[in-house]
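seq as requested:
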Amino acid sequence: MVLHLIKLVVGLDTIEELEAWRKQAESREPVWKVRTRQTPKRADELVDGGSIYRVFKGAILCRQTILAVDTVGEGRESRCEITVSEDVVRVAPVARRPFQGWRYFEHKDAPPDLTGIDPELAVPLDLARQLRELGAW
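struct tokens:
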């Protein structure tokens, strides 16, 4: 069974800002890693086709495929590094309340990808949120 993670993006408001941040970080960190305190106990399921879904300002907007989940350090100094794909895939916006850390995200709950859609032609985020709340999308 495919399992995903969901994580809040802090300090960035849009996918474009995330991509610009990554471009700046590429020279010092050639592989894109998401760092967390806790290593997921179900890491094998995450690496087997899972993605990390990112929440920007109350809405899931994109995902990245999880390539590896590693624990680095020992004891109190241990941390988790989740290696993700460089490809940022936009998904249909879904409202999500704030939470701390990360959460598992079942495949059945994952929003569909918006592949092949020009971001310039996509529905504005505020409108998408309103349509979702009304049950029209």
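The chain has three helices and seven strands.
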